[in-house]
Amino acid sequence: MAGTVIERLGVDRPVFSVEFFPPRNDDEERVLWRAVRQLEPLDPAFVSITYGAGGSSRDRTIRTTGRIAQETTLVPMAHLTAVEHSVAELRNVIGWYAAVGVRNILAVRGDPPQDPMGEWVPHPQGIEYAEQLVGLVRSLGPFCTGVAASPNGHPRSPDLEVDTDHLVRKIRAGADFAIAQLFFRPDDFLRMRDRLAARGCHVPVLPGVMPLTTVRTLHKTVELSGSEVPPEVAARLEPHYDNPAAFRTAGLDFVTELCERLLAEGVPGLHFYTLNRSTATREVVARLGLLPIRA
Q1: The CATH number of 5-287 is which of 3.30.70.20, 3.40.50.80, 3.90.226.10, 3.20.20.220?
Q2: Which residue, among 182, 103, 178, 196, has the nearest Cα to 143 in the 3D structure?
Q3: DSSP category for residue 228
Q4: pLDDT digits (tens, 9 = 90+) for 159-179
Q5: How deeply is 121 buried, as exposed, middle or buried, from its count of CB atoms within 10 A (0-12, 13-18, 19+)?
Q6: N or C end of the chain: smaller count of CB under 10 Å?
Q7: What predicted TM-score, i.e. pTM, was given to this entire model?
């Protein structure tokens, strides 16, 4: 099996990938591994593991990513953030990833741990910008390196043009691909892609998608996208807030239509935020015809 994200994207059909977060305890670890095993037969292009700076969350990230690399047929992509890390510590983490066979790293600066919108204070011996982290990863081995993109602009950026400039710098620092944060309107993603193309950047950009199965997942999408629910989406979902089954149906219909538009516009793949569950992602992937073809 191809071992890098770029190799896995370089096929003649759209693909899908999935994202997990590190479990906080043994019970969550069992839930995560059940989802991993259920998704493994569907052959996602890669599996992304998010990263917690410091402490057990970081350790579980490394351990989980290593297990996926060594115990499954899946291609893992590890996240790495600069939060509360010196350059020496970052080098160590990158070395751990290499030692367990991880060839793909998503390099993100990260947000302040207590308040995501608080003042960003780099580690005294650390780095300040994601583009520097990309450069560090690339200097330490033949890693396939990705970066984060914000279709609606990062909350700290004054406008979309400045935000695009930051993304371009990360790509030109050596990023091979980008993964977009969540969004509600496909045109927000497509306009970001156009802004990149206008600046001569043509790396693959994957849209981030979360299956909307509950009101909680809707609120999580708002949190991660940095934008409110558009009126046309609210009109479809709000009538079902008190009916979980109806909300799930309406939510998955909306997400399926969003993905169909993106696929029609030629995206190379779809990146699903799973919240460590597999059922809804499997359902949407099946609706979209992205399941592997069996002989």
Answers
A1: 3.20.20.220
A2: 103
A3: P
A4: 788 889 999 999 999 999 999
A5: exposed
A6: C
A7: 0.92
